Model the fold of this input.
Amino acid sequence: MHKIKVELGERSYSVMVGHGAINQLDAILPKSAKRAVVVTQSQIGLQPELKIDSTTVAIGGGEESKNLQTIEMLAQKFAEFGLTRSDVVIGVGGGMVTDVAGFAAASWHRGTPVVHVATSLVGMVDAAIGGKTGVNIAQGKNLVGAFWQPSGVICDLDALKTLPDREMRCGLGEVAKYHFLTGDDLLSLAMPERIARCVEIKAKIVSADERETGSRALLNYGHTLAHALERSSNFSLAHGEAVAVGMIFAAHLAHVMQRITKHRVDDHYTVIGETYGLKVKPDEKIDRRKLIDLMHLDKKAVSGLTFVLDGPKGIEVVSGVSEKHLDQAFDAMQLNEK
Done:
């Protein structure tokens, strides 16, 4: 069992990573909690056994259910159950569930404790950790939300045994991101240790920049194009798959901007395409203009088009990217020019 601390002063919490980690759940629940609402989905096979009074509420699947209507429904269920500010919300599921459960908890009575039980690889290495919660609106992904740190996070690796292949690939897209953020030799680690190392990396970044005013933005590597691809496909392209393509695009963009060498672009293809077997370019029929317009709506785009890009000093945020360079990067990616 790996225990990783997210250091945030009085709001610090632990992330438990290992097989059978769900058995640690009671130990990390807030001592004030007398009742719990478990937020999950019908297809999630993991159901916690709690010593306190509880009820379970299932939300819909897919990004189309990640909306304000779901938050309203949960608030009504919280009210019916008599959930107080001293009780706890428990999100059991992948990143979509923990995002929604976290935002519902942050909103209920202006802030009710939440604990996450991540059942997907994306949730374990990224979504469940760090306190970013939110839902989508028509104008963009995760535009409505709150920073609300959990009281603890459980990453039970047993849940990965039943994870569909596509969901596993989705998580590997986020795992691949950490290869480029740190330069660590993650491939030398067995998967449980690799997951724990990804959690350690994210915990360190969150501890240094909780509200994403600086270094935490680097966790969005590959996400600028990824979010645009997700929206333009009506979310038929899964998040991790989109992130994988987004990192390839970011590598080509950094190359055409003369920030990295062609060899470094090849490194991205090796890790993302060859090692993890992930998609490395979008479908041939893409609407570049639509994607660029969507990228202008990205949360980082406060000074023109903004990307997280590789460079001589490593991964960093770069503003004022020209559309000319975007076109060149699209061309290179579509031709798969390594």
